[in-house]
Amino acid sequence: MIHLRKTLCTIFLLAWAHEAGAVLLPTLPDPGWENGMIGAYTPINYDYGPRVVSSGSNPHVGIDYDIRTGQKAYAVDSGGITRISAVGDDALIQTGKWRYMHTQIAGPYVQSYEFPVGSGNNVFVFRAGNATSGYVLDKVLGAPLQGGYPVFTDPLTGVDAVVETSVAQSEWVFMANGLNHLHLDINNGEENPLKYVKHYDDPLSPVLYPKYRYFDVTSITDFPNDILYNHGANPVLLQLGADVRTDKDLNSVEMLVKPDAGAGVYISLDKWTYEPMLPGWQGYVNTVSGERSTIWLSGDMDSIKNSSFEGVYPLEGMANESFDFFKLHWNTREKASGAGLALLSSEAKWPDGNYFVKMVAKDATEHELYNEVGKQIDNFRPFLKMAGIESTEAKYYKEWSFDGTTLSCDGPALNKPMGDGDYTINLEFSEPVVGPTLSIDTLGSLTLTSNDPAGNQKNFSANFSVGNNFPIQEGLRTMTVSAKDLAGNFLLLLAAETTTINPSSELTRDPASGVMQGTAGSEEVTLTIDKTPPVVKLPDGSVISGVQTRMITLSDKQLVININDDPRKICAGVSGLCGAVSGIKSVRVADYSTNNDVLAPYVLPVPVVKLRNYPLALAAGTYVLEVRDAAGNLTSIPLRISGFSLEVSTADS
Length: 653
Prior knowledge:
Strand 7 (79-84) and strand 8 (92-95) form a beta hairpin.
């Protein structure tokens, strides 16, 4: 067979003819080879499969060849005669597994006679000639009888002839009747005869016409672009028109989907095929779901166009046309597990993102033609699912949890002040996004990067630093995150104090209009920045903050040191720029030379602004006093004392 390869050079759109798999090579001769009208092959009037008739719809279990009155039909294979039916429209001859139907001879040039032989068996006499020239006996066919074969005496000529009980390949078996066609089938319709019989193969066949549509109770509409989505419980309607032209050998249609990420494989949504025939059922069979397809009872184009029911829609047309429609419901909000509609992209079998949709048509000999296009599924508005910040330890963590109905987050599970150091921000969105932005007030925008594959990026990270050499100011800072999903929807607008999200009204499309619900915007996260170390006030009135290198000598009888983590709350007249209050977290005294702990470090289970009555008894020597706040900021003071008691107090400075 000759198949054309076609390519549409459009971004994210591919369509071509393609041959794949094991191709069958028919070897049996055309039954009307002497009457061939297309090359050496007889035109086909009606193909194998569903069809529309005046009484409704039923399958056509064979091939109707355009063998007209007066033309001969020939045996496609040799075989013994196993059945001869009564004369009439449904008269037939069966040789082995092949049936030749509509074998009545009619018209002014031919006649047929029927004589009962034995009990219920018939003998058919096929004659050629006309009324003026006389009748000439051409052929006598009969079914074998128990106990022998009948002998037929021509009532016109008186000539005896032995009834033939077999035919040879390419031997003519009858002349066409007034219906102007031969119906040929195999095994009572269980297979398509064109798997075995040579036939004309149109290099442009089949021609595929895919459609992607949505529907409600009143109308069906084409999606205006490559973005597909449910209208509530109404699924996406996939439709394929298959025009097999003069071949009329379409045997199966399958619709498949795969995510456009990595080396994904296609998943079959459903497949219609017309073989093998199920007991008691003749028609296209839904082999993936195991359900029988609907066959539409009308060949009217408008009825087909406006129908949302699944199934095969055979279209009645001219003798040389064959056009079937296939319709399939694709519930893009199907849950990955469980019943009902998914409320989040993460629980959907088909989460929001890029996909390839492939519609495949195969003929009786397994030649394949397919249409493959890129589509986006977009049922949900994106939101920031998780935000985390870490350095040497985790500092911030906030994540939304889902109970099957509502998303909730009472606040960050972790929110520690951040002092001097380098930090990494980790973000996870509910679905793939593009163009995400992140900014912190008084610091500006940060650069986000992702290790996820392009087109499927949900996880991003950014780095920033806190310290005197960096511009971020202390206090409660607002981190703002924004992004769009692949279909262009902005994140759900969420303020820092928001604790619940209703997916049904904020993250999904309106069932009637299909418009995305929820307010588009960004999400805000509140952070605590504290980059100033605690303040230690010495007895001489000096105030020390940060890491000191100068040794301080203390000689009082009683050493009292005030430690305060809240001396810096000056707004400078600018709202929101106040310093942070992290609280004192630990006090440590170490040997100056070895840096070994002199006493076990005092770590407060809950940070406090001031420490009270914290005495230390130390021998004469040199030490380092270290005080850290909860943000990790350090005040370190080298001390020289000689036998005095050292007491760390939190008296107000």
